[in-house]
Structures are given as C-alpha cells and as structure tokens.
Amino acid sequence: MKKVAFAEINASNGFYVLLLLLGSVVAVGLGAAYFMEHNGHEVTGMNNQIVWGMPHVFAVFLIVAASGALNVASIASVFGKSVYKPLAPLSGLLAITLLAGGLAVLVLDLGRPDRLIVAMTNYNFKSIFAWNIFLYTGFFAIVAVYLWMMMERRFNKYSHNVGLVAFVWRLLLTTGTGSIFGFLVARQAYDAAIMAPLFIVSSFAFGLAMYILVLVSAFQMTDREFGQGIAQRLRSLLGVFIGSVLLLTLIYHITNLYATEHHGIEAFILRDGGIYTHLFWFGQILLGSILPLIILFNKSLQKSVGSLVFSAALVVIGGFIQLYVIIIGGQAFPIDLFPGYEVTSSFYDGVVASYTPSLPEILLGFGGVALALTLTTVGVKVLRFLPVSLADKDVDPHHKA
Amino acid sequence: MPMRFLKQIRMTLGAMLSIALMGFALNLNADVPTPQIPKAVKGEQCVEETAFMRRNHMDLLDHQRDGTLRQGIRTKKHSLNGCLSCHVVKDSNNQAVTFQSEKHFCRSCHEYAAVKIDCFGCHKSTPDQSASSL
Amino acid sequence: MSEETNQDRRRFLGVGLGAAAASLAPGVVLYGVAQAKTDSEPASNKVRWGMLVDTTKCADNCDKCVSACATENGWDKHTGRAETRPQWMRKVTLKDKVTRRTTSLPMMCQHCEKPPCVDVCPTNASMKREDGIVLVDKHRCIGCRYCMMACPYKARSFVHEQVTDQKSYMPRGMGTVESCTFCVHRIDKGESPACVEACPEKAIVFGDMNNANSEISHRLRLFSTTQIRDDLRLNLGVRYEGI
Q1: Where exactly are the structural domains of chain C?
Q2: Which has the least CB within 10 A, A190, B19, B78, C225?
C-alpha cells in the first residue's frame, strides 16, 4: 500500500459559493434564535406540555451523530484496520463540528442563554446535564489532541492510545445523552436503562451516515477519486449499524409490551398515536431502516456510490424522525398521575399534548446543521483532513490492478 | 497557507485595537457628561456609606438575594425593595416611574456606566408600599 | 440524631406550643402561626411544611384556591396561547374507571423530600429549602426546562412571554421556570398559603408535619391519606384524603 497523501481543498469559486450558502443558513438560524429570545418561547410551538421541541430534536441528533462520526477514526487506530486510516482525520473533524453545531442549537434555545456563565460556575453533580457539560468539553479537547496525534507524523505512534481514550470517551458521551431521557422516572416513555445503549447504536448509524454524506460530497466537489473498495466497506458498516438500531428499538418495545403498566405508551406509539405512530412505522422503520437496508444489500446496486449516498441520506432522515418520536412523542403522551382513573383538568391532564413546530425553531435547527457544515468546510480548506484519493489502488492493500 | 491565514487574523485584530484606542483618546479630550442621579426621597443617609454603596451595592444585593431565597433570611436592610422605596422617582402624575423610564434611579446610573441590570426582568422596578417582605 | 431524641424534642416543642396555643385565639395555631420565625432566622430543617387536602370536601366546580393562587402570585394575566398559560395550581377531576366514582382535587408542586427537579437541575436553581419547600432560584435558572421533564406531577411552568408588574414579593420573568412556592413569602410571616385561606370548605390544612401537635400531624395520624405516585417514594409534602 502506498503512503496516504492528504491535501487541503482548493479555493475554487465553488468553495466560496458553498461557504456563502452555508453561512446564510447560519445567519438565518441566529436571527431565529434572536427572535425567540426577544419574544420568549411564546413564538415557538413549545409549551408547558411539550417543553422540549424541534431545537432539541436537532441538537440531540447532531450531538449523537458527532460521537458516531468519530467511529471511522476509531476503527482505524483502535481496531487497527489500516484501510480506514485515510478516512480518520475527517472523522475527527466532523466529530468536533457536529458537536459544536448541536451545542449551539441547545444553548440558543435556553430561556436565558445570556446566563450560560451560570451553568459554568454552578454545578449540581447529580444532574446529567452537568455531567454532559464535562463530557462535551472533554470530547472537544480529546478529539483535538487525537487529531493532532494523527496528523503530525512524529506523534503518529501515540494515535492508538489517544484514540482509545477518545473511543471510551465517546461511548461515555452518548451514554450521557441517552441517560438524559433514560433517568426520567416521571414519564412513561423514558425511565428505561436501554436508552443509553439505544443512543449509542443510533450514534453509530447517524454518525456514519453523516460522515458518508460529507465525504462523498467533498470528493465530488473537489474531483477526487472514490474507489469501490472503500464504498463497499462503508456500505456493510452502515448496514450493520442500522440493524443494531432496529434490534435495540425492538428490545425497548418488547420490554415495555411485557409489562402491563407500559401498555398505554406502547399503544400510543405503535398503534393509536396518530402522527407519532405514522412517523414511527413509516418514517423510522420503513424509510429510515428497511429501505436503506434493502438498497445497501441489493446485489445489483453494489457498484453504485449513489446508492450508498442515498441510503445514508435515508438514515439521516430516519434518525431525525426517530428522535422526534422519542422526544416529542414521549412528551405528548399524558403523564399517568392516577393509575386506574380517567383524569380531566383545566391543564391538559389525561389528554395527548399538541405540538406544532414553528418556523423559528426549525430555522434554528437548520442553522446548527449549517454551522457544523460551515466549520467542516473551513476545516478541510485550511488543514489537510481529506485524502487526495480513495481509489482502490491507493488505499486497498490487497488491490490488484 | 495556514500561515497567511493567521497573519490576516493578526492584522485585523491589530486594526481593531488601534481604532478602539483612538476612540478612547478622543473621548478623554471631550466634555464628559455626568449622570443625573435622582436624590433619595427618604432620609439623609443610605443603609451604608454612600461611597461604599456606589462600589458595593451589587454585592450586598447578591448576598441578600441568596440569603432571602435560598435560606429564608428576610432581613430588610439590604433588600432591593429598600433601594426602590428610598430612591423612588415620581413622574408628573406623582406615580413612581418604572425601569422603562430614563429617570429611574437604577437606570440613570447604569445607563451611564453601560452596565446591564438583570434584576428587572423578574423583579418589579417600583416600590411596593404595602408588602413588607423582600 | 436518633429517632428517640427526635421524639423527645417534638414532645418538648409540643408542650411549649400547647402553652402558646392556649393564649392565642383557637384555630390560629392550627395554621402553625406559633412557628413563625424571626426575619433574621434562616429556615430550619426542624420544620417540614406540609399540606393535607380533604378531597371529600373539595367541590368539583370550585376553583377558588386556583384563582387565589393566581392573584396572590401574579400569574393571572396571560396573553399568549392557552398551552403556555402558567399553572402553579390546577383542579383535576378523577373518575374511577371501574366504579365511576369521581373525585376533585387541587394539584400543584408536591414539595417532595427527594425532588426529581432538584436532582436534574444543572445549576442548582431548583432547590429545596431547609424547611422542605421546593423553589426555583430564578437568579440561577437558565431556562433549560429539564426540571419540567423530570417532574412527575407536571407542576412546573415555563414563562413563555415578557411579564411586567409582578408582585414585589414574587418576582417572575421570561425564560425561567416557576411553580408553587407554598406561598413562602406568607409562611415566613407566619401566615398560611393563599389557597388554604381561599378554600370555602376549609378542605386544605397547612402546617408543620414535624410538629406532633399541629393539626396536620393529628390528621395524618388519624386518617388514611395518599401520596400521589407513592411508587416513586418521594415522600411528598402534599397529602390527599379520600382518594
């Protein structure tokens, strides 16, 4: 195998157009956040029943995808698969930028984002949010060092060990994100330890899907060669990850269905929940899991990079829908305060809560996605994150011309 | 390539700094307006020395608020309502002005010093005649 | 401190309070006035404020407690959507699915001994005072709403819009979370919460659950009472009779 060459992308017109486009989406997102802060959350679709809305779907998606995006680098340096080495630097960069995008959305949705300093100076160590503040900042630092070890030739020898730390840290980080929901005893949809592993396997799938989309687009836009060997590996990997998410989703629902006390929430998500039921079956299961699996493992489409990209896009859409069902659907189902009673009140007790996402919330969410992509674009421009070629002859040790 | 990028950042920062310094130098020569601080309506002496209050009122208020809210200590000496009662400013209808008015005691000085007050997003900015608490 | 000394102290306090009660108008002591602390005294963990609601007296079509709370604490003026209306207190009607018996009761912050909202708050803005009152320190609240996700009683509201002309004793502002405070400003003056005074049926009893001689302790000893979602073992400050 040849030594892998990396290079910055060129400052073509396309680069500036892309930057301008992404930058405008970021600006619109910031404007939306300002509008929400100025007028209060009254102008969003969120309310006293659905307290976390669209911004949280976007933020959680980006944060979960961030930890998953690092997997490609881990496969190279922790599990020693040298074929993935050329893919590793972009994986680290994407991990950082996706996390930055997600956190920006999360912070800008706060009721008082101006008081962020309070969150930095007062810690309640029993709060999973407080743990996450450490997990997120630690992640930035560790991945930055990891990238340095990977990209500075003299330090390459340390990249295995630092990579191991980064890998363990990313598992902890996603555990923390999943536990935000898993530890909520109050609500029937959450309060399940499986949330942590479910979020971990979801991060594998979302992160790899985002990685594939960014990698292939970057190669397309910079006219670099993308070989069948790499595509084939990413294809199988994505398939395995989608399968794992399906398995844990199945276990989550089977466990709930076994216990009579959870039949209410299960009937709501799986059968009677209207929009949430539709989103679950058609969005998450069919569109986001079954369809990409069929495409990925279809023999006649094996040679097409386009089918890989299409599957990755479906996984991203399915991932958003999955989180929407968990976050919004989980809140929409009424809290069961009085088991065995029909409950009515002046405050929406016993009824499914309504939620219509408003434009500012959605724009804020897309602003976060655009921020992540802007940072990535700038990153690959100023430093050598992208390999010059991923053609089979350049990366595959067993390639025979 | 990255080197040139860094240099550009350095130059931009340098330019910004010199503009800022220039503005500062000009300001020193200009006529400096002073804030119109309304006089207290009650008594001659504040709860502490005036000079001390000017520098430290925020610490007293912070201390008071944590004591009141988190511990339930309800002494009145350093309470916000105490400030508002003595330093109330009345408009032409003999109504106490709110923080919306430029004449409000807190605002008159804070605006001059360009220090944002975070109190009146939640707290009422006029004195409460009836209530003795807070 | 051992359980025994605790009992001892309670007995001692009880005697003292009994004497105080004799010199006061009867009925007043039932609200725990005798325990009013001085202004400079911090809230003490010797006291555990609690509320007992007799649902058999609570009328289905009455919400005087709720409107008294709203007026007292200044959350009665809301211009936004119905779903964002603050609701420190609400009336809930229960209908037994099998027997069809209906019950009406007020629902508010249950002032848990181990509050989930306090556990999850990243900045310690959600807090429990020494005397068991659960509060939001709005100086620290960043508006993340994690406490609202964690509260099993849906007792908290987020201020979705600009508010003006608050009560001076009850500051509230956009972007922070709020809930029932047991009318802490009244308790500290030795008065009872607004809802307790407003109830025409005298269905709500308020007092110190640590004081064996308080009316609430008496009733808790005598009658069967319920803590809502007692499966969570949160040891609530609000108890219900008759459900």
Answers
A1: 3-241
A2: B19
